[in-house]
Amino acid sequence: MSPSALRPAVPLMVLIIAGCAIAALGNGVRTSFGLFTLPMSADLGLTREGWGMAMAIQNLAWGIAQPFAGAFADRVGTGRTIALGGAVYALGVLLMAFSPDASVLIVTAGIITGLGIAICSFSVVMAAFGRSVPAEKRSLIFGVATAASSFGQFIFAPISQGFINSFGWQSALIWLGALLLLIIPLSFALRGRAETQEGQADLPFMEAIAKAWGHGSYRLLVIGFFVCGFHLAFINVHMPAYLVQCGLTPEVGSWAIAVIGLFNIVGSLLAGYLGGRLPKQLMLASIYFLRAVAIALFMLFPVTEVSALVFAAAMGLMWLSTVPLTAGLVSLFFGARYMGMLYGIAFFSHQLGSFMGVWLGGVVFDLTGHYDLVWYLGIMLGLASAAIHLPINERSVPNFSLKAA
C-alpha cells in the first residue's frame, strides 16, 4: 500500500479514540431499543409482531445500506460519510419519539434509523482503521473498536432505562437522539479514504463484489455471519420482555443488556488479540458452538435474576467477538482497499439474520405466547454456523484487484 494510504489525517491515536467514541455512541443507542418494547407497545397499542417488524426493518435497512455506505466511504471519505450517517441516525430516533403507530414506526424506527446506523456504523469506522493501521495490528484494533461499541451498550442500557423511568419513553428517545449528534464533530478525525495500490485497478462496485463472491471462503464467511445477526438481534430486542414474562423486573432486563456489553469488552479485545495469533476460522467456529451451548443451558434451567445475568455474561464474551475475526478475514482475503464494501456485504448477511431473529421473535410470541421456538432455533443455527466456518481457508486472494489481462 502506498504511504499515503496508511497516513491518517490526524495522529493515529486521535483517530482511534474518535472512532471508538463513534462506535460506542452508535451501538449504545441502538442496543437500548429493546428496553422500549414494553412501554411503547403499551402506550401505542402495538402487537409484539408490530414492534418487532419495525425493529426488523431497521436491521434490514441497515444491512441493505451497509455495502453502499462502505463503498461510499471508500470513494469519498470516511469522515463525511459518518457525519451524514450521524445526522440521519439522530433524525430517525427523534422522529421515532413522535410515531403514533406501527406503520409510522416502520418508516422512522425502521427505515430512517436503519439507514443512519449503516452510514455511521462501526463497519465504516473499521474501514478507516483498516487503511490507517499496519496489517499485523488490524485484528487487535478491530477488537478495540468492537470493545468500544460494547462499552456503549454497557453504559447506555442503564442510562436509557433511567431516562424511561424518569421522563417516559418519548423524552428518553429525544435525549438519545440529541446525544447522537455528537457523532458529527467526532467524524472530523476520521476524514480520508483508502488509496489504490500501485499496479492495482480501481474496480467498479459490482465487479469487485463478483470477484470477491467467487472466493469460496468468503462465501462461507458471509453465510455464517447470518447466524451472528440472528442471535444478537433476537436477544437484544426480545430478551428484556422475555425476562419480564418470566417474572423478573424491567431493570433486570436493562442490566442483562448492560452485562452483555460489559463482558463483550473482554470478549472483543480477546478475540482481536488472539485473532492475530490463532486461526480465525477456528475461533469463529468455537464461538458459534459455545453460543449454542450457552442458549441450551439457559433454556434448561429455571430463569432467575442470577441465571439471566450469568447467561448475559456468557453471551457477552461471545457477543461481538465475531466481528474483529470476520473483519480480519475480509481484510486478509482482499486487502484494505475494498474493506468497507466487502465487509459491508458480509454485514448484509448479518442483518438478514437480524431481521429474521427480530421478526420471528414477534411472530412466534404472538402465535404461541412465548419465545421458546426461537431460542431452540438459535441453538440449531449456532451449531450449523460452527460447521460452516471449519472449511474456511485463511489466506489472501492473489491479485484480487487486478483486472484480467
UniProtKB/TrEMBL annotation:
<dbReference type="GO" id="GO:0022857">
    <property type="term" value="F:transmembrane transporter activity"/>
</dbReference>
<feature type="transmembrane region" description="Helical">
    <location>
        <begin position="220"/>
        <end position="243"/>
    </location>
</feature>
<feature type="transmembrane region" description="Helical">
    <location>
        <begin position="140"/>
        <end position="160"/>
    </location>
</feature>
<feature type="domain" description="Major facilitator superfamily (MFS) profile">
    <location>
        <begin position="12"/>
        <end position="396"/>
    </location>
</feature>
<dbReference type="Pfam" id="PF07690">
    <property type="entry name" value="MFS_1"/>
</dbReference>
<protein>
    <submittedName>
        <fullName>MFS transporter</fullName>
    </submittedName>
</protein>
<keyword id="KW-0812">Transmembrane</keyword>
<feature type="transmembrane region" description="Helical">
    <location>
        <begin position="172"/>
        <end position="190"/>
    </location>
</feature>
<feature type="transmembrane region" description="Helical">
    <location>
        <begin position="255"/>
        <end position="275"/>
    </location>
</feature>
<feature type="transmembrane region" description="Helical">
    <location>
        <begin position="104"/>
        <end position="128"/>
    </location>
</feature>
<dbReference type="InterPro" id="IPR020846">
    <property type="entry name" value="MFS_dom"/>
</dbReference>
<feature type="transmembrane region" description="Helical">
    <location>
        <begin position="81"/>
        <end position="98"/>
    </location>
</feature>
<feature type="transmembrane region" description="Helical">
    <location>
        <begin position="282"/>
        <end position="303"/>
    </location>
</feature>
<keyword id="KW-1133">Transmembrane helix</keyword>
<dbReference type="InterPro" id="IPR050327">
    <property type="entry name" value="Proton-linked_MCT"/>
</dbReference>
<dbReference type="InterPro" id="IPR036259">
    <property type="entry name" value="MFS_trans_sf"/>
</dbReference>
<feature type="transmembrane region" description="Helical">
    <location>
        <begin position="309"/>
        <end position="334"/>
    </location>
</feature>
<dbReference type="InterPro" id="IPR011701">
    <property type="entry name" value="MFS"/>
</dbReference>
<feature type="transmembrane region" description="Helical">
    <location>
        <begin position="373"/>
        <end position="392"/>
    </location>
</feature>
<feature type="transmembrane region" description="Helical">
    <location>
        <begin position="341"/>
        <end position="361"/>
    </location>
</feature>
<feature type="transmembrane region" description="Helical">
    <location>
        <begin position="12"/>
        <end position="30"/>
    </location>
</feature>
<keyword id="KW-0472">Membrane</keyword>
